[in-house]
Amino acid sequence: MPTRRSYRDSCAMARALDVVGERWALLVIRELLLAPQRFSELRHALPNAASNLLADRLRELEHHGVIHRRRLAWTAGPHVYELTEWGRKLEPIVLALSKWGLDAPLPPEPSSLSATSALIFLRLSVHPDPAVPEIVCRLDLDGSIWTVSKDSVKVQVQGGEPARADISIRTDPKTLGSLLADPASLDSALAEKRLNLIGNPLTLKQLLYGPGLHAL
Amino acid sequence: MPTRRSYRDSCAMARALDVVGERWALLVIRELLLAPQRFSELRHALPNAASNLLADRLRELEHHGVIHRRRLAWTAGPHVYELTEWGRKLEPIVLALSKWGLDAPLPPEPSSLSATSALIFLRLSVHPDPAVPEIVCRLDLDGSIWTVSKDSVKVQVQGGEPARADISIRTDPKTLGSLLADPASLDSALAEKRLNLIGNPLTLKQLLYGPGLHAL
DNA sequence: CCGCATCCGATTGGATACTG
DNA sequence: CAGTATCCAATCGGATGCGG
Q: Can you list the domains of chain B with their CATH numbers?
């Protein structure tokens, strides 16, 4: 049963919150920022959200024109949820709010971390590096493949296989998160096999920590 | 009874929402963007929020370090709520979300509009105007005084009396909002005494609508 | 009045089970 | 896999109370 309440405030912020202010809504949008997702993928990404709530939020967001349901492979085949053009305009807001949230206290354990969250964290943490021409990394995160590239002017995270890669890593979102938060954890992650690396470890350090590497 | 629930998600966005994601929280923050406010002022600005919820949100936001309570006039005297330094960093996010919300459907009537909301809408709508050197306007909105100034590079909205003003207007938030949304409503607002103007009407038009004035 | 606290019915959220 | 259905707990919203 979708929610029907409103702030009944003409202010644009209140109107925005009438659309994306319900519980879980912005986290659903976060999940869809990098790629369209299926219902089961969203459930996996947001394990603390009940399935009925997820269904409610998806219905409401679709009704408001923030996301829409699309069938893959013409007819038959699974459907995915993806952001509409309007929904995509939330990206800078979600990123800004994420950046702000970095200063917030950590949640009570146990806490989840989805692949998309870790990739967004990566994009917030890694900065272009004028000292290095280009690094392309193939990333296998929880079984799905991403291409992370960084050059002197930009950092990109895209779904799918890279055409060419300098290094290839396989890990899980939590390990990636702790790697980004604490460079010193890289060695133990490798030792404990939570991180699998093909290629030069120094290249990975350059990719993740860039010019700040001297801090090590 | 303050809420104690969490998304239990390590993602920075979820952590941000653990702090400012509860109902009414971001609207309280919106209200505090331009000036500290007393409890009763917040109640007036958010008439659809129950007083116990307002008290809960204020307690939670203070506990999380987004706002803090301060006593005016040393000891005794009323206290006001104001944003902390961390809370102030939400300003660009609130403004961006407001801008996004302009494309959202209008809420069901009756709907409120606080003075702060109208002023934020003004700041979003009015742009610097290279064609005009400077316009300073004294604004009496629901009884509190603001200084709105615009020159070739910036637009400012500040609490308090201006040192000097080109025009002075007195109105209410809803009228100001409709004025900004529809320039054609200016004449009827004047005729119906919902807007009181001292000074040249053309100056007011230049202030509010600027170079877009030729559209009239 | 101001600044909340308390009480209570109406919604919403959360966990689990179930169906096409 | 992609959601519903159900039930219970937490939260919300509105009214009212109450000390300062």
A: 12-101 (1.10.10.10), 115-215 (3.30.1050.10)
